[in-house]
Amino acid sequence: MAPLLAVGVTATLVPALAPSPASAAAPLKAFENQRPAWHRCDASLPATFQCGTIKVPLDYGRPDGKTIKLAVSRMKTSVPGKRRGALFFNPGGPGGEGLDMPVWIKDGLPKQVREQYDLIGFDPRGVGRSSPVTCGLTSAEENIEHAYEPETFDSTTKWARTVADKCRARNGDVLPYITTRNTARDMDVIRAVLGEKKISYVGYSYGTYLGAVYSQMFPGRTDRFVLDSAVDPARVWRGMIQVWAEGSEPAFTRWTRWTAQRHRTYKLGDTAAKVRKTFWNLVERADRDPIELDGQKVSGDDIRAGLRPVFFSPKVAAEAVVDVKRAAEGRTVSRPSVLSGEAREPRRFATAAAGVPRDNGTAAFWTVVCGDTAAWPRDPEQYRRDAIRDKARYPLYGDFGSNIVPCAYWGKPAEPATKVKNRVGLLIVQNQWDSQTPLTSGLGMHRVLKGSRLVYVKGGEGHGVYTMDPRSCADRNVNSYLSTGKLPTGDVTCKPGQSAGVNPGIVPVPPQAPGAPRF
């Protein structure tokens, strides 16, 4: 393992977690006994959608110390006699706002699920309306995708150091405690505040890791948990960025074959090799002379990074490459390109609070992925070597996935990363062709959760499965589990639903803050 701190890296000194769990129990009772002042979240939303605020310790090792505020929401079941408990949600991230999830997800839940649960949303610590972090980043500094080129590596290294320095300067004493483990502890405080003995949960993407960590830390309070589009706990977190490169190569190969079979439609080549050559010729052309598309100049690196998630849905990718080709030839492109800023802008829900810093999503992302684990190399040259190696291994995205990031200059984590390995019974749902959490990632989660069952959507495209098609095999299995508590007797293989492929990673499943990177 690389040393925690290398020459030239500034450390944030983090005090040890002094009190034992027993000595911390009494102060925590005060947090668990809170009674939020529930109120209508927004006049434009149903009156049944209520919001409240609670306090939690910044550092659970010192519950008598500084506190932060968490924003929590609920929609109570309309049939109290059928109520089983509370169903928590997380949209992904890190950095995704979850306060509004009960509103936008309720219509995707069948009656037998809605009637059994109060639906619970919350913004994780450091995010949205829960004591949001900011690093004061410019729009350029918020860009997380950096290709490796020998002539630009020094400037990329400077960017990484600048982001880390800015985050430390703005959030010094808070930074070490915006972590997944502490968010799991926050969830358990919310559970206690609601008066629940256990909680049920649906987590997407990063939310699968949060759910797995909760199940590891609080197995006796874990009821019915659904992990949709799963992170591999063994890859947290550098490996999860690198897996974007690893997972994109088979998707790209599949796309070339699919497109070649439809040469009459797309005219990109009548063999997979010719389609591949057409694409790489466009990348080389754009690197020499950027292509104007939707009023923007697009480089070869822009094409590689922008289309990486799109290749997981061949039809969308074929149309996108046709548009790039038309633009390169000086012809008119009639539809917005998936490479344009407008087309790739994440949705924002109507209740997004005023006063949340513009860079909050990105700041929270780096705060968690850098603060969760010490397993980030501290030597910039290791990133250089890895980027060169992976660009050759995974040409589409390998150098992006292994290039230097702010975590190289982060402080020492407040506590070790969670080792996820248990036999808690829960359900994992995974598409075969998922751009953000590829199949290998979902299988990694299934491997360490020994009591889990996997609902595998063979041929399924897109990031996120549950509630995308209420008639699908995957939804039927999830709904059965949430309503009865019975896991399938074994792993299940499903066919894609009718809406498969509508969410190839361009727009995340849940509403999220603009500019924020996502798993």
State the helical fraction: 25-40%
State the end-to-end distance. Answer: 25 Å
Radius of gyration: 23 Å
Q: Unreliable segments (pLDDT under 50, ≥5 consecutive)? A: 1-23, 342-351, 500-516
Walk across the major sheet and give the strand order.
Answer: 1-2-3-5-4-6-7-10-11-12
Structural class by secondary-structure content: alpha/beta
Q: Can you count the helices?
A: 18
Overall geometry: globular
Largest sheet properties: 10 strands, mixed
- Helix and strand element order: HEEEEHHEHHHEHEHHHEEHHHHHHEHEHE
Number of strands: 12
Percentage beta strand: 5-15%
Overall average residue pLDDT: 90
Please describe the topology of this protein.
Blueprint (H helix, E strand, L loop, with lengths): L20 H12 L6 E2 L8 E9 L9 E9 L9 E6 L10 H5 L5 H4 L2 E6 L16 H4 L10 H19 L8 H15 L4 E6 L1 H12 L4 E7 L9 H23 L2 H4 L5 H17 L2 E3 L2 E3 L1 H8 L6 H15 L12 H4 L15 H12 L8 H14 L4 H5 L24 E7 L5 H10 L4 E9 L11 H12 L7 E3 L25
Helix pairs in contact: 6-7, 8-10, 8-12, 10-11, 10-12
Question: What are the defining features of this structure?
Answer:
519 residues, 10-stranded mixed sheet
Polypeptide structure, described:
With 519 residues, the protein is an alpha/beta fold. It contains 18 helices and twelve strands. It has helices at residues 21-32, 101-105, 111-114, 139-142, 153-171, 180-194, 206-217, 238-260, 263-266, 272-288, 300-307, 314-328, 341-344, 360-371, 380-393, 398-402, 439-448, 473-484; strands at residues 39-40, 49-57, 67-75, 85-90, 117-122, 199-204, 222-228, 291-293, 296-298, 427-433, 453-461, 492-494. The strands form two sheets. It has a ten-stranded mixed sheet with strand order 1-2-3-5-4-6-7-10-11-12, sandwiched between helices. Helix 18 (473-484) links the parallel strand 11 (453-461) and strand 12. Helix 8 (238-260) packs across helix 10 and helix 10 (272-288) packs across helix 12. The protein starts with 20 loop residues before the first helix and ends in a 25-residue tail after the last strand. Residues 1-23, 342-351 and 500-516 have low confidence and may be disordered.
